[in-house]
């Protein structure tokens, strides 16, 4: 599903301030895997996600998505494979537009034919039905501006919009970092549910080791631009939360 073939990434290559953000990262992620990525600040986690998304290009190596070599494709050219949720709930939605209009825009952006086809009324009904999964009562507020919602509510809707399109890969880059514990928990459980329901392949970057322990079926630890641990499903299930804390000592 995702192949990262011997990828390295340097910033400011050849200059005195060159940074080797990733060195020889080689990894295969199977369809349906939910991979959690942990590591200290600056260890290369976001760069790794950016390389998969195409927001930054590798200095060396190849990125293959569903057997397509996308190494030199730009971010928007990869959007049919990839959806992304960022740390900041304000990214990804337009605050002055209503919830419904935001969903309409998202469906146009991703060209999900399933959503575009049908009248406005049918579209609204579909969005309502989807939003009710969140159990936040937002299905009755479709005409409310996105900006009037809390960060947690906005992030939940962003997550939902991003999984409703055709993309099969979901990248979650610290999606709960800006949220209070209750909203964070809601986002994590919602993401988990949606990943299973839509059969997505997902990558979650997090500093929350409790979440890293609870969610996903594989865990990677990055250090200084390299993968230093790759723990598969069965081993991950046997990990204690304390084991994860010990990785950082
Ligand atoms: N655009 C850039 N220009 C120069 N250096 C960069 C750039 N982006 C990242 N880096 C450097 O690459 C290294 C890896 O950064 P990255 O953001 O991938 O780490 P991270 O593990 O996501 O960190 P954090 O947990 O703090 O978000 C760091 O040394 C960082 O300073």
UniProtKB/TrEMBL annotation:
Example of a GO cellular component annotation carried by this entry: plasma membrane
Domain of life: Bacteria
Subcellular location: Cell membrane
Chain ranges of the ABC transporter domain: 2-249
GO molecular function per UniProt: ATP binding; ATP hydrolysis activity
The entry's keywords: ATP-binding, Cell membrane, Membrane, Nucleotide-binding, Transport
PROSITE patterns: ABC_TRANSPORTER_1, ABC_TRANSPORTER_2
Classification via InterPro entries: AAA+_ATPase, ABC_transporter-like_ATP-bd, ABC_transporter-like_CS, ABC_transporter_ATP-bind, P-loop_NTPase
Bilayer topology annotation: Peripheral membrane protein
Primary site of residence: membrane
Name of the protein in its database record: ABC-type uncharacterized transport system, ATPase component
Source species: Solitalea canadensis (strain ATCC 29591 / DSM 3403 / JCM 21819 / LMG 8368 / NBRC 15130 / NCIMB 12057 / USAM 9D) (Flexibacter canadensis)
């Amino acid at each position: 599903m995702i192949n990262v073939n011997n990828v390295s990434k340097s910033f400011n290559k050849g200059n005195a301030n060159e940074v080797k953000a990733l060195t020889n990262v080689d990894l295969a992620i199977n369809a349906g895997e939910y991979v959690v990525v942990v590591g200290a600040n600056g260890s290369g986690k976001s760069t790794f996600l950016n390389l998969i998304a195409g927001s930054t290009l590798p200095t060396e190596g190849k990125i293959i998505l569903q057997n397509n070599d996308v190494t030199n494709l730009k971010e928007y050219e990869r959007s049919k494979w990839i959806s992304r949720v960022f740390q900041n709930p304000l990214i990804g939605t337009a605050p002055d537009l209503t919830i419904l209009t935001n969903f309409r825009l998202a469906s146009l952006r991703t060209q999900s034919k399933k959503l575009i086809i049908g009248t406005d009324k049918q579209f609204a009904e579909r969005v309502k039905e989807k939003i009710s999964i969140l159990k936040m009562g937002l299905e009755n507020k479709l005409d409310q501006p996105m900006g009037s919602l809390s960060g947690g509510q906005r992030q939940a809707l962003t997550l939902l919009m991003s999984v409703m399109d055709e993309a099969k890969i979901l990248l979650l880059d610290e999606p709960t970092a800006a949220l209070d514990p209750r909203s964070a928990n809601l986002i994590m459980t919602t993401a988990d549910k949606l990943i299973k329901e839509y059969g997505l392949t997902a990558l979650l970057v997090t500093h929350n080791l409790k979440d890293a322990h609870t969610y996903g079926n594989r865990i990677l630890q990055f250090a200084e631009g390299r993968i230093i641990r790759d723990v598969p499903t069965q081993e991950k299930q046997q990990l204690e939360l304390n084991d994860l804390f010990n990785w950082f000592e």
